[in-house]
Write a structure and sequence with these properties.
Shape: globular
Structural class: alpha/beta
Largest sheet: 4 strands, mixed
Distance between the termini: 27 Å
Strand content: 5-15%
Number of strands: 10
Oligomer: single chain
Order of helices and strands: EEEEEEHEEHHHHHHHEEHH
Helix content: 40-55%
Length: 332
């Protein structure tokens, strides 16, 4: 379970084997640590030294995010001692053929999931026609083997994603329309929820990558950039469409959020207001703990968070064995 703490000015203190959240010396929340896997703090929330020591002792990951959802830093217990896994990862990264093959597999996984999502929507909405966009995705998938560098793979992925988002914008029934993907800053409510969802998902994956013993900064598709968790971002790609895009679409089409839930922030884009933000986090946590019906195994649908964990474990095994990683694939 992930615990989100959003109250500006709150202080998180230890109380025996529990945490207590206070503000202005008044208790506002009680957090039992049993079944708590990670804690996410947004904005101006403080941790006491005693609380920090308890969290480290219990091995509970803590992420510090800005009020808008961007990662500031992490509090984690001692790193995994699996140096042999990290050595294998460094060796794979320096193997140009392995890196290219892994990057190609990651892009293929993302494009297949984008195609599956569009097909599913068409099936459930006979009036929708995504023929042009599906053709772009099919053509890109057919030509992936021709790209001899990671940069060319990224180019193909970028043009295909642009086509996908053109179709995605036509899925919305609500008055909150989506025309194009804008990131920094998000310029409309749909982009605001997409960016928030992707940030939370990246935090989920990053915590699991660190716990597995892998180096989160050494990826195969995303290039090395100081401070960027490239491997975590690699693993996020296959889950963007089936987890976050689908979730965002459902929130708007089922009217969980409307225009009054958003506020403009000068020079920073559009964001949820405080009450709506807390509501979003509750819905997000329910979504990650619910069965992921897009990934049924032998008739059983694992929870989304369990599926993410399984994919991180698969990446670690593939790196250790020198095998090419196989991304999660939607089975609708």
């Amino acid at each position: 379970m992930t615990v989100f703490i959003t109250e500006a000015g709150a202080v998180v203190r230890q109380s025996s084997q529990h945490l207590v959240v206070t503000k202005n010396n008044k208790r506002i929340a009680h957090v039992p640590l049993i079944n708590t896997e990670r804690i996410v703090l947004f904005g101006n929330v403080q941790l006491t030294t005693q609380a920090i020591n308890l969290l480290l002792r219990e091995g509970i990951d803590v992420a510090f995010l800005t009020a808008g959802g961007r990662l500031r830093g992490r509090l984690v217990a001692a790193e995994s001692k699996n140096i042999f896994l990290r050595l294998a990862q460094y060796e794979r990264h320096h193997d140009a053929a392995y890196q290219l093959a892994t990057a190609r597999s990651l892009v293929a996984g993302k494009l297949r999931n984008a195609r599956a999502f569009l097909r599913l929507f068409q099936k459930n909405n006979p009036g929708a026609d995504f023929t042009p966009e599906l053709a772009v995705l099919a053509d890109a998938l057919a030509k992936l083997d021709r790209h001899a560098t990671v940069s060319r793979l990224l180019g193909a992925e970028g043009s295909s994603t642009a086509a996908y988002f053109r179709a995605y914008g036509r899925m919305f029934r609500s008055e909150l329309r989506f025309e194009t993907r804008t990131k920094r800053p998000p310029k409309d409510p749909v982009n605001a929820l997409l960016s928030l969802g992707y940030s939370l998902l990246t935090n989920e994956v990053l915590a699991l990558v660190i716990a597995s013993g892998l180096d989160p900064y050494l990826g195969f598709l995303h290039s090395l950039v100081y401070g960027r968790p490239s491997l975590a971002l690699d693993l996020v790609e296959e889950f963007r469409h089936p987890l976050i895009d689908r979730f965002t679409l459902n929130l708007f089409n089922n009217e969980f959020f409307g225009p009054g839930d958003f506020r403009p922030v000068e020079n920073e884009g559009i964001y949820l207001n405080d009450e709506a933000f807390k509501r979003y986090l509750r819905l997000y946590e329910q979504h990650l703990r619910a069965p992921l019906t897009a990934a049924a195994d032998n008739g059983e649908a694992p929870a989304a968070r369990d599926r993410i964990k399984k994919q991180v474990q698969r990446m670690a095994k593939c790196i250790n064995a020198g095998e090419i990683y196989r991304p999660f694939q939607m089975t609708w």
